[in-house]
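Lab channel / #folding
Pinned by the channel admin:
"Please post every new chain as: sequence first, then the structure tokens as a reply. Keep commentary short and put observations after the output so the thread stays searchable."

First post following the new format, from NK:
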Amino acid sequence: MPIAAIESLDHEARGIARREGKTIFVDGALPGETVEYASFRRKPNYELAHLLRVVRASPVRVEARCPHYGVCGGCAMQHLDAAAQVAVKQRVLEDNLWHIGRVRPEQMLPPIQGEPWGYRRRARLAVRKVPKKGGVLVGFHERRSSYIADMRSCEILPPAVSELLLPLRELIAGLSICERLPQIEVAMGDSCIALVLRILEPLNATDENLLREFADRHGVVLYLQPKGPDTAVRFHPLPGPRLSYTLPEFGLELEFRPTEFTQVNHAINRVLVRRAMRLLDPRPGERIADLFCGLGNFTLPIASLGASVVGIEGSPALVARGKESAVANGLGARVEFGVANLFECTEESLAALGLFDKMLIDPPREGAVEVIKALGETAPRRIVYVSCNPATLARDAAILVSVKGYRFRAAGAVNMFPHTAHVESIALFDRE
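Reply from TO:
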């Protein structure tokens, strides 16, 4: 089998080697290592390969904590020391900013990081009956496969959720619709755990009793979802705690439904919001825009610091939730929400929202290029950009700097998803 020296990591945390004019992507290999590998896909310019043996190990290689690591596709970096993972992500951010956007920030911010285990408060678990594996499987998909990993625990889920994996297998195996329940969505708030069961056929009375007994025994709230996410309804118990998370530094509590978007890592989210507020520096008398605002994760902290804020989001359901939270937190007078498709933003539609002193942008992976292009002469003097894709941040940063006249003041990585290759970041732009 061929042997190669690993030079760096790609955006999927695969080791990169060069051999005979080809780029070799090796799963599980780390920079500085010499490895033996076996290719499973060959193209004219590159190959994809499995790691067979580490000939010379990196000093930051560690033993994976999860017994399912390497098979389960939920993690890609458990073999790399947690601190080194953060350094890698900061480098990925810097590389994307320069190689894609040809921009560099004046300051690199310290990475935001926290507890690397048991952090994932949102998850979508696949469900399938597999007689050859002993019955029902509940978990993440195997790496590069539609098969479900035979998971009996999960180190990145909170322990209380990980401990439900085997009981859920037993529960679903006993339902009449066992083979018509393909997915369970997990959402954990500060006071309860919700499980949303995607059901393709109605339950019978016996099924309903089994579900009630399970919810009572394990202290969870069950929802049933017969069609799309909006059809999820609370099943049992009907009264009781609701899903919410708090931002104690700002005295806020935000309620959410289990199928609505919230950050998966609540602890890191608190630090991210704190940094965003420090960079944005909202002040009484200022008018600030929060674009792609979701249910108000940044909107309400901005308002709590005394500024007037306009939150714009494409989802009417999230806007409705944001309005409810603003009133519940006593901020209704300083917050205005609106529904708009920001991917179709124009200079005219943005100008119609009025003048803003500052702006926060938190788009999905596609980025905010139409918003950036729509900024005119009356654009805000400061923009804080929260990104979940360093490539689209780099593209948008290039426009802000080279076309719109902003200075790229600062940027830093946010390790929202430890042990995965996912890189979040935050950036600051100013103009006179």
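NK: The chain has three domains: 3-61, 90-115+264-430, 122-188+192-236.
TO: also worth noting, The chain has a mean pLDDT of 96.
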